[in-house]
What we know:
This protein has 190 residues and is mostly helical.
Amino acid sequence: xxxxxxxxxxxxxxxxxxxxxxxxxxxxxxxxxxxxxxxxxxxxxxxxxxxxxxxxxxxxxxxxxxxxxxxxxxxxxxxxxxxxxxxxxxxxxxxxxxxxxxxxxxxxxxxxxxxxxxxxxxxxxxxxxxxxxxxxxxxxxxxxxxxxxxxxxxxxxxxxxxxxxxxxxxxxxxxxxxxxxxxxxxxxxx
Length: 190
C-alpha cells in the first residue's frame, strides 16, 4: 500500500461525494478535529495509570467519536448516514456532571495547567473550541450534521471538567486567575 497518491499535489483533496480545495472550510473543520484527536491520543498516553482508568477508557471512546464527527463533516452529499448521535452528547453530559461533583468547588477562572496530562487536556479543550468555530463557519455556508456542532460544544466542557479531576486526583490544586471575579456558583451556595 502506498501512503502517497499524488492526487493532492495541486491543492485538492477528496471528500465524501467529490473533491474540494485543501483550504475549504469543510477540510479546515475536519482537519482541526483530526488535530484534536492527536492531542487526545497524547493525553491517553499520559493517563495509563489505574487512577485514571475511567478517563483513559472515555478518551479512547472519544477518539472514535471524533473520527465520526470528522467523517460527518467530510460529506457533501446529504443522503449519507451520519454517525454522530445525540447519545454521544448524553454520555458526555453524564460524565461532566460526575466530574463536576468529584472536583472541588470552583468560583473563579483557572489557568490551564497543573499536571502534564491536565495541561494536554486543556490544549484539547482549546483545539475543540477552534474546531467548533470552524464548524460554525462551515454551517453558515452549507448544511451539515448539526449534532457535530453540539457534540464539540459539549466536548470542550467535558475536557474542562476532566482536566480539573486529573489534577484533583493527583493532589494538584487549580491555579486561580488572580484578577478573576467570582464567576461560578459553588455547590454550597446553590
